[in-house]
Amino acid sequence: MVLTRFARIDPVTMETGLFCLRPRGAEKEKATFLVKHRHGARRYQYEAPYALDHVALRVLLALCALAAMSQQPVSAAPSQEGFQAGRARLNPEFEACQLITGNWTGPLATLTREAGMTTAGSNLARVRQRLQELAKVRVTVFDADTDNLIGAAQLISFLSERDSNRVLITLGPWLSKSILPSLKGQYVRVCLETLRQIKDPAGQILHAVFSSRIRERRTTPVRYGVNAVAAIPYAKGSAAGGATQRKRHASVRRAMRALAASGWRIEPVPATKEGCYDILRRQTVIPAPPPTRLATARRKSPVRASAV
Predict the structure, then answer these.
(1) Could you give the strand order of the β-sheet that contains 222-225, starting from the edge strand earlier in sequence?
(2) pLDDT tens figures, 255-302
(3) Backbone angles phi, psi at 202, to 5 degrees
(4) 94 with 149: CB under 8 angstroms?
């Protein structure tokens, strides 16, 4: 099976801090996640029972890549009743009821491989659990200036066939706009080949977030302080003093080494008081689209000399 190379995702989700590392044994029920993020003229609110981990991040990016390949846009038209159950589970409100959504239907094992895991039974169970967690994330959109409600929907919806490992997943409308090329929405690209190479959990989160913030064609590095880097893979608002902060800084150093090993340009800046990194994104080659029939015909046709 040939795995996808890149995933398209909206520019908001990676900036919310939805995906982070949590201490072992942390009680998820006591860590309600609620973040508001302004993008352009809109304010996006992400709400979930708790923040999600690096495995959920990999599952979402793999799902985005598969949905972009399948290109199954679904509207609210009655003619597409087969997919309406997935749309209904998004619980759309206002604008979200009219927007097109992306879908992916296939074996759970395919999604698991895309996320960089083997298809062992334990991994299939992990991916199914992360899909259920992603389906609990609620995205609400407001006008940034007037605070008027524009729309709301779940990030994804998740259905599975009885006695089967096939799943039907519907993406939320604003996520779908960025993923489906036909909708021409704004998006950022995350290299999944690199993501699968990185085994460090903090490194996986940093790779996705830095991919959202640093353009591929940028030629000058972006400078981040150690504390700013550490704030990315750890839950917002969590305590980080003393021994905890030292452990997080050690985790960041491991993650940055993992990024450097995967091709990112990571240069420590020791002269600064806090400690900084100069970061430049790995240069990836975008495969050229296949030539159209018209272009192929033009190349094959002989060139006729013009009369003088």
Answers:
(1) 222-225, 276-280, 265-269
(2) 999 999 999 999 998 776 778 999 999 766 555 444 544 444 444 444
(3) -65, -35
(4) yes
| Nearby residues of 88 by Cβ (< 8 Å), 6 or more positions away | 157
Query: Which single residue is written with the structure tokens 């993650």?
Result: 255
Strand ranges across the sheet with 103-107: 103-107, 166-171, 156-160
Beta bridge partners of 266: 279
DSSP-derived 3-state class of residue 29: helix
Residue 119 CA to residue 116 CA, distance in Å, equals: 10
Q: Can you tell me which residue has the tokens 């959109």?
A: 141
* Alpha-carbon gap, residue 91 to 82, rounded angstroms: 17
Answer whether 128's CB lies under 8 Å from 120's CB: no
Phi, psi of 195 (to 5 degrees): -60, -40
Alpha helices (runs of H) in the chain, residue ranges in sequence order? 54-70, 84-88, 108-114, 121-134, 173-179, 192-197, 201-213, 226-230, 243-261, 293-300
Cα–Cα distance between 167 and 20 in angstroms, integer?
26
Work out the number of other CB atoms within 10 angstroms of the CB of residue 185.
17
* 140: its two tokens: 């609400």
- Whether pLDDT at 244 is above 90: no
At 302 the pLDDT is 46
Largest CA distance in the chain: 85
